[in-house]
């Protein structure tokens, strides 16, 4: 998929700084995005996307009004907008907002931090804005365990049925899980983070929770997905995810 800025194709082999200098309006757009305070997005109408997940929906979705993700330090969050079947044909990608690397960086005592850790998109209006998410479920530990065990990029949402589908996921016993759970916070931060000096405060507790989940479920094929079927959720009348039985689908 060719990447274009103002109709001109971008040479992906060149440094990002060259592209920023060649297209100064990208810096202005990033500055505008950075200037917005992070909004707290509550669970109602939210579809939260974890690391190595993606979700696709349309403005006609009656269940989901906000897509979002956060805790990005060395990761990237990509928001794509399309009017047709994006995944069915090769398309040009027109870069509108670019807020990564030097455009999303602040320095404090020689340590670099992201300015924006999370992004949300209003699927009705296409507005994007900095955001944080108090609730990252459902099945936060399960989905994080899937990531920690080397998950590929995974689609979690069926826009036609408006269902969130988690799994089935399979892994073996996590190597040295007892060892890691015995380590202090500093060791976990230093060894299990790609950016130990820039992580949000809840990083270590999140990793501990995920490791504990992996210890409790060394064989998810037996304990979580014995029928080899996904865990399926739909939004209830309050706009919150509610697990539904397969025989009701």
Percentage beta strand: 15-25%
N-to-C order of helices and strands: EEHHEEEEEEEEEHEEEHHHHEE
State the strand order across the main sheet.
3-11-10-6-4
Cα shape: globular
Tally of contiguous helical segments: 7
Distance between the termini: 36 Å
Evaluate the radius of gyration: 20 Å
Mean of residue pLDDT? 93
What percent of residues adopt helix (DSSP H or I)?
10-25%
* Main beta-sheet annotation: 5 strands, mixed
Walkthrough of the structure:
The chain has 249 residues and is α/β, with parallel strands linked by helices. 24% of the residues lie in helices and 21% in strands. The protein has 7 helices and 16 strands. α3 crosses α6 and α5 (185-192) crosses α6. The model has no long low-confidence stretch (mean pLDDT 93).
Brief descriptors of the model:
four-stranded antiparallel sheet; 7 helices; five-stranded mixed sheet; 249 residues; alpha/beta
């Amino acid at each position: 998929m060719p990447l274009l800025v103002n109709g001109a194709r971008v040479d992906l082999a060149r440094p990002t700084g060259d592209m920023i200098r060649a297209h100064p309006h990208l810096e202005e757009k990033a500055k505008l995005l950075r200037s917005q305070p992070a909004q707290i997005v509550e669970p109602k109408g939210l579809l939260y996307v974890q690391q190595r997940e993606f979700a696709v929906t349309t403005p006609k979705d009656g269940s989901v009004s906000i897509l979002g993700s956060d805790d990005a330090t060395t990761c990237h969050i990509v928001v794509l907008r399309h009017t047709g079947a994006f995944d069915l044909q090769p398309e040009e990608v027109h870069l509108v907002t670019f807020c990564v690397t030097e455009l999303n960086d602040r320095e404090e005592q020689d340590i670099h931090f992201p300015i924006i850790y999370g992004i949300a998109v209003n699927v009705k209006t296409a507005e994007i804005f900095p955001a944080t998410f108090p609730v990252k479920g459902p099945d936060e530990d399960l989905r994080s365990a899937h990531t920690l065990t080397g998950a590929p990029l995974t689609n979690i949402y069926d826009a036609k049925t408006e269902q969130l589908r988690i799994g089935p996921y399979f892994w073996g016993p996590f190597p040295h899980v007892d060892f890691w759970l015995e380590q202090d916070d500093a060791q976990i931060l230093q060894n299990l983070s790609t950016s130990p000096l820039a992580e949000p405060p809840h990083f270590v507790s999140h990793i501990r929770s995920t490791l504990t989940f992996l210890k409790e479920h060394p064989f998810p094929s037996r304990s979580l997905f014995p029928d080899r079927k996904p865990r399926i959720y739909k939004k209830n009348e309050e706009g919150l995810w509610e697990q539904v039985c397969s025989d009701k689908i």
